Amino acid sequence: MVSTGQVLSPAEPEPTGSTSNDQSAPLLELRGVNKRFGAVQALRGVDLVVPGGQVTALAGDNGAGKSVLIKTIAGIHGADGGQVLWNGRAVHVRSPRDAAALGIETVYQDLALCDNLDIVQNMFLGRERTSSALLDEEAMETSARETLTSLSVTTVRSIRQPVASLSGGQRQAVAIAKSVLWNSKLVIMDEPTAALGVAQTAMVLDLVRRLADRGLAVMIVSHNMNDVFQVADRLAVLYLGRMVAAGPADQFDRQIVVDYMTTGESRRRRDDAGPVPPAGEVAR
Ligand SMILES: Nc1ncnc2c1ncn2[C@@H]1O[C@H](COP(=O)(O)OP(=O)(O)OP(=O)(O)O)[C@@H](O)[C@H]1O
Ligand SMILES: [Mg+2]
Fold first, then answer.
1. With contact defined as beta carbons under 8 Å apart, do 75 and 50 qualify?
2. Most buried of 29, 30, 204, 261, CB within 10 angstroms?
3. Dihedral sign (CA 118, 119, 124, 128)
4. Atom of ligand 1 nearest to the CA of 61
C-alpha cells in the first residue's frame, strides 16, 4: 500500500478556515472544481460537500457531468482547477492509486468485477494475501465470508462461485463488500441499481444504507428518484456542469429535483422545509 504522504502533496497552503485533519470538516469537499475536454466545459466551478456517515445522491440529466465528477474524485481525470479537500486538508488526487490510498473506492456499473474469477478472487484482486510466497486462500476466504456476512449478504450460494454466475444485485453486493473489506472511507457508485429488478434494488439500497450507518461516506449517482429519496441524506444536482443545488434531502422533493435537473433552477419550495440552499452554501 502506498502511503498517502508519498503520493499526495498538499495543493497549497492550508485553506482559510481549515486545519489539518479538522474534525469538523466534511470527509470530502470540492471547491470550484473545473474540468474541460477541448471545447466542452464538463465541470464549471463545482462545489460539493460529502460528509461521512451519510449518503449523498448526485442527480443530473444525461451529459450533466456526473460521471466526469466522480471520475475526477476517483483520480481518473485530473481537475483543471479548484480544490479538493480531504478531512479539511487540500490534496491532489492524480491517479486511482492516490484515491485508493486515501480510502476512496469506486464501484462502476459494469467494470466492477472480473467475470471469470470467483467472489474471493475478485475481492482480493491486486491485493492477494500470501503466506510463505503462496496465496493464503484460507485467510482470504475467511475474510471474504466474514465481510459478506457482516453486511448480511446471505443470498450467495458459494463464495467460490464465478462472478459470471451471480445476479446483478449480487454482483453489486460483492463490489460493495470489497470496498468494506479494504476499509474504504468513501464509496462512490455510478448508477448502482440501473440494471436491477425490484428485489435486487431493495437489497443494494439496503447495503448502501448500512455502509453509511457504519460511518462511511457514500456517494451514489442515480437517475431514479425512488432510489434517491429512499436512501439519500443529502442531494446534489448538476446541470450542464454546474452544481445548481445541494443540501439535505428533506429540503427537496421529486418535482424540485426534476426542475433543477431540466432547467438548472426551481421556483418551488417544499411546504414543510426551508429554502433549498444554493450550491456552495450547503449546510453541513
Ligand atoms: N473523455 C471525454 N472526452 C471528451 N468529452 C467528455 C469525456 N467524458 C465526458 N465528456 C463530456 O462531458 C460532458 C459530461 O459527461 P458525463 O459523462 O459526465 O455525463 P453524465 O452526467 O454522467 O451523463 P449520463 O447520465 O448520460 O451518464 C458531456 O458533454 C460529455 O460529452
Ligand atoms: Mg454518466
1. no
2. 204
3. negative
4. 25
Q: pLDDT (tens digit, 9 = 90+) per residue, 40-85?
A: 999 999 999 999 999 999 999 999 999 999 999 999 999 999 999 9
Top pLDDT among 25 and 12 is at 25
Is-contact 170 158, C-beta < 8 A? no
pTM score of the predicted model: 0.83
Substitution candidate for ligand 1 out of 36, 40, 260 with most atoms within 8 A of CB: 40
91 HSE (CA, 13 A, CB side): 27
Ligand 1 midpoint to CA 119 (Å): 31
| Look-up of cell digits 450533466 | 64
Ligand 1: which atom is nearest the Cα of residue 241?
Answer: 14
- Please classify residue 176 by burial: count the beta carbons closer than 10 Å to its beta carbon, then call 0-12 exposed, 13-18 middle and 19+ buried: buried
